[in-house]
Amino acid sequence: MRVGLFVTCLIDLMRPEIGFSVIKLIEGAGFEVVVPPAQTCCGQPAYNSGERRLARDLAEKTLREFEQFDYVVVPSGSCGGMIRAHYGDLFGDDPELMNRFGRLRAKVFELTDFLVNVAKVRLQPGEFAAQVTYHDSCSGLRELGVKTQPRELLAQVGVAVTEMKGCEHCCGFGGTFAVKYGDISTAIVDEKCANIAATGAGTVVLGDLGCMLNIEGRLRRNGDSTTRVLHIAQVLAGDV
Question: Which InterPro entries did the record assign (predicted)?
C-alpha cells in the first residue's frame, strides 16, 4: 500500500535527516513511501494568524496532492492536527471539498499512531540505551490523541522513559505564539527545561520538530550543551 509522507516544512528545511528516519520506519513496516515533490505548508501558520484565504488555498493544495494515497503519515502533531482537526472549518462552505476532505481525513495519521495502530509494527531492540524523558506536544496529544503510542514504541526498542513533571504541558513554542509573545514563551520553555533536568535523563524525545527546536534552543542558551533533544523517529530508526 502507498503512503504519502507529509514531510513538514520544518523537517524539510531544517532537519531533513528526520525525514529519512521516517521513511526507513514506514518502509520497514512494509509500505511504499511517496513524498510528493510539490508539497509545501499545511497552512497552520496562516490559519493561526487569521489568514483564512491563504490557509484554505494551502489546504486545497494539500488535499489535491495527498488524496490519491492509501494513507498519509505526518511526523508532526501540529501539522497532523491542522489537517485532521481544522481543514473541516476551512472547507465548511463547500460540500464537494468537505466530501473529499472526509475521505482524506480518515487516512491521515501522526507517525507513531500509524506505526502502532495501522502498521502494528514490532520493532527490534536497538543499541540506544540511554535514559530518556518524553515531551508530549500539544497538538499531537490534544488533537490527535497521541500519548501511549510513542511510549509503546520506545519500549519495543528497549528505551526506558523517565516521565518528567508536566510532560503534557506546552513547551512555549506554539508556532507564531513564540514570536508574538516572546516573554511568555520563554517563561514556559524555561519551566519545561527545568522539568527535563529534574529527571536526570540525558535525552528528551518528542514527536514535533517545532517543540524540538524550541526546547533545544533554550537549553543551549541556558548553557546546557549536553542534553540531547531527539525526534522519536530518529530513536526508533536507530539513527542516533
Answer: Cys_rich_dom (IPR004017)
